[in-house]
Amino acid sequence: MSEEKKKKRIKYLNRALLNHKKVDLNFLKSVTFLGIPREYKLRPLVWKLLLNYLPPQVSLWEQTLKENRQFYLDFKKETITPKISQLFDKMFSPNGLTSFEENEISEEIENEQNENFLDKETFYLLLEMYHDTLRTWAGDGFFANKNGKNNQNKTSMTKTNNKNENEKKEEIKQIKDITNDKGSKEEEDKGKETEKEKENEKEKEKEKEKEKENEKEKENENEKENEKEKEREKENNNSEKEEDNGTIEILEQNHSRALCELLFLHSQINKGVGYTQGMNDILAPIYFLFANTNVKDKQFADADSFFCFVNLMSEIYQFFCFEIDSTVEGLNAILNQVEDGLKRYDNKIYKRFKKLEIAPHDYCFRWISLLFSQEFKKYQLIRLWDSLFADKSRFQFVISFSIAMICCLKEKIMKLGFGEILESLQNYPKDIPIGRILRKAVDVSEKIKKK
Fold this sequence. Notes:
- It comes from Anaeramoeba flamelloides.
- This is Tbc1 domain family member 13-like.
- Residues 37-392 form the Rab-GAP TBC domain.
- One of its GO terms (molecular function) is GTPase activator activity.
- Residues 145-247 are annotated as: Disordered.
- This protein is mostly helical.
- Among the domains are: 67-154 and 232-319, no CATH class; 324-450, Orthogonal Bundle (Cyclin A, domain 1).
- It is built from 21 helices and no strands.
- Helix 10 (255-269) packs across helix 11.
- The longest helix is centred in the middle third of the chain and has 56 residues, at 195-250.
């Protein structure tokens, strides 16, 4: 984003947020959808408004925050009992909870030898949350335990199609055979062509050459645009590193413990949904943003994160509730919308997927259920979530963005086989600028609406 655009965006954000008795949410959404500059310090406030934690009436903000933060403290004190706190102390001590200690506690609970400890259900729930917390943003450092523990494994939320290596090789061989057969047939046909047919063939060749030149020009333009995007993201990454140098010192607390406590508290206040692996990835960006802010609210990062997370989960609970997967609201229905949208926006990719038997479950199950939280770096993700939270259709943009991610890999998809395509989709390339995907997603939204 150019300096001029940043200044203009900040001006509009200030106009939306400041000097009003009531925030115009529609105007705020319109501005936020285009992205909030990273240096803008009021992004946490924007998210609190868009996630319905704060009301539009400015006069109610102070009282709302005061009451909610007090409720959080009371609820935390009541829910995290001394027994649970004792386990958290062990888990998030400098050495963490060792495998030996895990097994020892498990045996005591299974044999009901430790009456002063936790009940079985709570212990195994906390243990699951603990391990998921250690996996959160692996390698980033922000959620690493005090001893630096951070598991590198990704959350597995992808249903894959089982084609083995031999099948892939056979597929490539068949494609080569077909290509060779076509070449031989063309040679035979050329010998039988009349002069008129040869002239037509030459005309077609000229047209193809023109098309290739046009495609090359487009590719060059895209490459130039990508280079610009990459330069911008490189600058952002450099500033990200600078910001991160001070991140850990902002709160004198263990971020991984805070994350785990918040997950447990949510599971207790919303027992209908409970806890499912992956919720940690949804909570992490919210907590990071609030804990990494330089305003006075940083000391209330856990309380504010709790309410924003509860509100967000109430809107996307169907992504984690497998009982309603096949209903109109369920994840399967959303995946079907992705497939239908792809068919309307880019029929070539759609047909390619159908031919190779690549279904939406194979690649975008995790994308959507985790709101893309494992596909992008944290600041790219936060930029994306600006648009998702500001979406006036409330998360319909998730569908358009998924289609855009696919279309940004069109060149690979049209050339590669089953295995290579899935590899690219399931481990999305980090060198594709988020700005490019977002622009494509807007184009997808507009064109699908017209059809």
